[in-house]
Design goal:
Elements (H helix, E strand, L loop, with lengths): L1 H22 L1 H17 L3 H14 L4 H14 L2 H14 L4 H13 L3 H14 L4 H13 L3 H14 L4 H13 L3 H14 L4 H13 L3 H14 L5 H12 L3 H14 L4 H4 L1 H8 L3 H14 L4 H13 L3 H14 L4 H13 L3 H14 L4 H13 L3 H14 L4 H14 L2 H14 L4 H13 L3 H14 L4 H13 L3 H14 L4 H13 L3 H14 L4 H13 L3 H14 L4 H13 L3 H14 L4 H13 L3 H14 L4 H13 L4 H14 L4 H14 L2 H14 L4 H13 L3 H14 L6 H10 L3
Helix pairs in contact: 2-3, 3-4, 4-5, 5-6, 6-7, 6-8, 7-8, 8-9, 9-10, 10-11, 11-12, 12-13, 12-14, 13-14, 14-15, 15-17, 17-18, 18-19, 19-20, 19-21, 20-21, 21-22, 21-23, 22-23, 23-24, 24-25, 25-26, 26-27, 27-28, 28-29, 29-30, 29-31, 30-31, 31-32, 31-33, 32-33, 33-34, 33-35, 34-35, 35-36, ...
Length: 758
């Protein structure tokens, strides 16, 4: 009994002691901290973060735990949280210099260069021989264009820590920025000398040689990097890029085909071939490649997402939707999944829902350039051009190398006549894709807009030089020659474009245009028909044929061609609209109405058919039907200025709500600030509201652009009459009748003149 008593007493005392330890906050926080360190060493950063978070909850002043929590966040890519934890670390222990340094580097990455420099100097005041602080200061000075001081600081870092390869790499980049190529090469080589088996320095030197167009040296370094790291995809990607830079796409393909086998366990490696096909614009082979990868690696989410993206580009939206829905079922806030859904909705014409989905994606990732780009497309489709431009500018700011965003901005520049924006987009595309002809074509257009024909010709010739197998440069140069009325040369280059791509619509359109400008309509028709026979299933070719026939006055054959285009591409809005237009010209108004209505059924989110059919019905005096169509257009695109303008005018002329009409007219005026018709509609709304001075100002503006418009003179005459300016009223009412004695309101104009004394 005494023995059992002693054992029980011992266990009780031990339990009390353990309980005391568990309640001791210093012991608890240390246990959490040590557990976090073990997870961190195992690269289990999420688990490590949880334990470090537990430690700082026990002791909010535990500086080392805040610091380690920040390290975990940085490994996880959660930089804002890392920044906050580092700030808490230095608040708890201002002498924790490594935390100040990490903060400085985050500030540098956030482009807060002056703050980063201040952190570096703070550390150097305490630790003058801290090599990392000198590196931070050097990099801060470099981005502030203090080149000499930057290099001097980096050299101090090397003196303090001469055995670090990465410091020499950093120095090499600073020397390159200072245009010290020879010194940079020596620094790259010193980095390799310090760590001959490392991949990074050899890749860096290879990239340097590639920029210098020293192809054999570049290939030698990339090959050495591949030997140093046989399981890495980076040297393989570098070798493939080098081959592309040299214009040898076949060699690049062979490199990546081999890598697909040798890097079969490296996701970044086995995806390279599909990504190569995509980058080269070979969407069909990219789709086939990712379809195969998806079967082979069904759990690779990146493969699945890439496959979905490619299916969308191929317009296989049903299959894309099925796979993308699986992604979103697993994670409803998956940003890529939301962006894909937005793209699918854009393809289906549901731009309002696409806008909502893409805005949700940006709430999760506000700096996602792809989401901004596709949101811009949704805005553009609904006529909200300012918002579209804003989104594309943001996409280009976040990712300057984003080809699609730069291309969209170049279209904005052409539409607005913004030559500076056109130059910026052209140069950005050339910088990031020097082997792609588009950048040089845009540069040529920019030079042409400035009157620099010689510079334009040089740019167009460069487009042909960098991509001799692409039709784009030849077509662009053909249009350049056509603008100079050098038609034989224009035709020659359009034919060369068609030799390279027999299905090039731009080239055929240019060729037909050159012939039509020479009044050779029959020859144009014969040449287009020849190409249609060669590529009979190209809807765009039938559109060109229809346009040529319409120009020649052969409306029967034009209608046949446009109808064939709609059969080949049921989603070709241009085909439907041109078909309806030619039917209307032929007097087949009922057939035109049916075509518009068929297009509305096929493309219910396309606003143009509602507006054009509304105008047609308005011309037939079917006002109620026209009003209904304009209202439907406004439902599809609430900010569409043309629909708003037309609906406002109907309301004003046919007894509608004047306040609603005024609101719509203001929408139209905002969207079409330089259009006289929009100014006239808003003026007429002001007239109906009794704001005659405002009406007069807008009508004066409209008449500057269209001084021969009888309706504008009639409206301003009435406004002057109501504003007690009879002389001006008579002048404009008389002018209206002089211009067109039988215009729609001619009788009303005569009555107004009679009231004014003739």
């Amino acid at each position: 009994m005494r023995t059992r008593f002693r054992i029980t007493l011992l266990l009780t005392l031990l339990a009390v002691a353990l309980a005391g330890c568990s309640r001791d906050p210093n012991v608890r926080k240390q246990k959490y901290f040590e557990s976090g360190q073990r997870y961190f060493a195992q690269e289990k950063y999420r688990e490590a973060a949880i334990q470090f978070l537990n430690a700082v909850q026990v002791d909010p002043k535990f500086a080392d735990a805040h610091y380690q929590l920040a390290q975990s966040y940085m490994r996880l890519g959660v930089y804002q949280s890392a920044f906050e934890s580092l700030n808490r670390a230095v608040d708890s222990n201002p002498e924790l210099m490594k935390a100040h340094l990490d903060l400085g580097n985050l500030l540098l990455a956030s482009r807060r260069f002056d703050d980063a420099q201040a952190k570096a100097r703070l550390v150097l005041e305490k630790e003058p021989n801290n090599a990392d602080a000198h590196i931070l200061l050097a990099n801060s000075l470099a981005v502030l264009n203090n080149v000499e001081a930057s290099i001097a600081e980096m050299q101090k870092a090397i003196q303090l820590a001469p055995d670090r390869p990465n410091t020499y790499l950093n120095l090499a980049y600073l020397q390159l920025n200072a245009q010290q190529a020879q010194a940079a090469e020596q620094s790259f080589r010193k980095a390799i000398e310090l760590d001959p088996k490392a991949m990074g320095p050899r890749l860096a030197l290879g990239n340097f040689y590639q920029q210098q167009q020293k192809w054999p040296q570049a290939e030698a370094e990339f090959t050495a990097a591949a030997q140093a790291a046989p399981d890495s995809h980076l040297p393989v990607a570098a070798l493939a890029r080098l081959a592309i830079f040299q214009g040898d796409a076949q060699k690049a393909q062979q490199i990546l085909l081999q890598a697909k086998s040798t890097l079969s366990q490296n996701p970044e490696g086995y995806r390279l071939l599909g990504e190569f096909y995509f980058s080269m614009g070979d969407i069909d082979r990219a789709v086939a490649e990712f379809a195969s990868l998806y079967q082979q690696y069904p759990n690779d989410l990146r493969v699945k997402k890439n496959y979905v993206q490619l299916l969308i580009l191929k317009d296989q939206v049903d299959e894309a939707t099925k796979l993308n829905d699986e992604i979103l079922q697993s994670n409803s806030r998956d940003v890529d999944g939301l962006i894909h859904r937005g793209q699918i909705l854009n393809r289906r014409g549901d731009f309002a829902e696409s806008t909502r989905v893409l805005e949700a994606a940006l709430k999760s990732d506000s700096d996602n350039p792809v989401a901004h780009y596709h949101l811009g497309l949704a805005y553009d489709a609904t006529g909200n051009l300012d918002s579209a431009e804003r989104e594309w500018r943001e996409a280009a700011r976040l990712r300057p190398a984003m080809f699609a965003a730069q291309q969209a901005l170049s279209a904005v520049a052409m539409r607005k006549g913004d030559i500076d924006l056109l130059r910026q987009t052209a140069e950005q595309i050339i910088t990031n894709a020097p082997a792609v002809p588009l950048g040089y074509i845009l540069r040529g257009n920019e030079r042409l807009a400035r009157g620099d024909r010689s510079g334009a010709e040089t740019a167009f010739r460069k487009a042909m030089e960098v991509a001799p197998t692409s039709p784009a440069g030849y077509s662009a140069f053909g249009f350049f020659q056509m603008a100079s009325r050098n038609f034989p040369q224009a035709e020659r280059f359009f034919e060369q474009a068609l030799d390279r791509d027999p299905a090039s619509v731009d080239a055929l359109q240019g060729l037909a245009g050159a012939m039509l400008q020479q009044k050779q309509g029959a020859r144009a028709a014969a040449r287009v028909e020849q190409q249609v026979d060669r590529v009979p299933d190209r809807a765009g070719f039938h559109l060109v044929l229809g346009q040529v026939m319409a120009t020649n006055g052969d409306l029967d054959r034009a209608e046949t061609a446009f109808r064939r285009a709609t059969e080949l591409d049921a989603k070709s809005l241009d085909a439907f609209l041109l078909l309806a237009s030619i039917q209307s010209r032929r007097g087949s108004v009922d057939a035109a109405v049916q075509t518009y209505e068929r297009n509305i059924q096929s493309n219910p989110k396309d606003v143009r058919s509602y507006i054009l059919l509304g105008a047609l019905e308005e011309s037939r005096k079917r006002i109620d039907r026209a009003r209904q169509l304009y209202e439907q257009a406004m439902q599809v695109s609430p900010d569409n200025p043309v629909a708003a303008n037309n609906l406002a005018y109907i309301l004003l002329e046919h007894g509608g709500n004047v306040d609603v009409a005024l609101s719509l007219a203001q929408v139209a005026r905002r969207g079409l600030p330089k259009m006289p018709n929009a100014a006239d509609t808003l003026a007429w709304a002001y007239y109906k509201k009794g704001a005659y001075s405002l009406a007069i100002g807008l009508l004066q503006e409209a008449l500057k652009d269209l001084p021969q418009n009888a309706t504008y003179h009639y409206h301003i005459g009435l406004a002057y009459q109501k504003n007690n300016e009879p002389a001006k009223a008579r002048q404009h009412l008389r002018r209206a009748l002089e211009l067109q004695s039988d215009f729609e309101k001619a009788d009303d104009a005569r009555r107004a003149l009679a009231e004014l004394g003739g």
